[in-house]
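ARCHIVE CARD
CATEGORY: sequence design from structure
SOURCE FIELD: tokenized fold
FIELD CONTENT:
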């Protein structure tokens, strides 16, 4: 079984090469919302640097979901270039010990920028950080193509595949996209400033 956990003893100079492909369902943490991920590939290097470990690489994969316009199942790929610094220390302090009150404010700002990940124990687990990157990379709107015509609002035909013949019905205004224009028919006594 593929793993994204690396013992510190295995991370030696100059770096540890990483090329791991992991099933999407294995990546999702317990309790996280399920969505259809394809395999996720993590490639790069994990290198020791003073008191931290730096990962340079990419996270790539795909999401399988219905198109938001025509509902046809589609697969959309993504690739994210990442740089993470893992620092040994308590999670609440982002790797800075609680008694280090003389730490520079500039150093603390650097630790709070999200690219520094605290860890405990004798291994670095990339899985939670990879999961976070995947969630951020997933598009908010899934489209089979930018030119997708969607579905007919009257008969539901996929307009990418066929012309449905509902053009006349759509031209009569019942399916026009004019926001709240339908309220005019419901409240005939109300007149807008242009109609007076």
């Amino acid at each position: 079984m593929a793993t994204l956990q690396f013992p510190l003893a295995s991370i030696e100079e100059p770096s540890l090469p990483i090329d791991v492909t992991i099933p999407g369902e294995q990546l999702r943490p317990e309790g996280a919302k399920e969505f259809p991920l394809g395999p996720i590939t993590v490639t790069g290097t994990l290198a020791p640097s003073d008191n931290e470990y730096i990962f340079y690489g990419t996270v790539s994969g795909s999401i399988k979901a219905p198109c938001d316009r025509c509902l046809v199942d589609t697969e959309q790929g993504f690739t994210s270039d990442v740089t993470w610094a893992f620092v040994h220390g308590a999670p609440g302090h982002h790797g800075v010990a609680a008694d280090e009150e003389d730490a520079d404010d500039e150093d603390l700002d650097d630790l709070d920028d999200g690219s520094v990940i605290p860890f405990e124990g004798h291994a670095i687990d990339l899985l939670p950080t990879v999961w976070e990157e995947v969630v951020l990379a997933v598009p908010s709107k899934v489209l089979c193509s930018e030119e997708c015509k969607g579905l007919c609002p009257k008969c539901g035909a996929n307009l990418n595949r066929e012309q449905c013949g509902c053009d006349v019905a759509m031209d009569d205004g019942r399916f026009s996209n004019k926001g709240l224009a339908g309220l005019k028919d419901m409240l005939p006594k109300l007149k807008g400033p242009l109609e007076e």
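CARD ANNOTATION: The chain has five helices and seven strands. The longest strand covers residues 73-88.
SHELF: design records, drawer C
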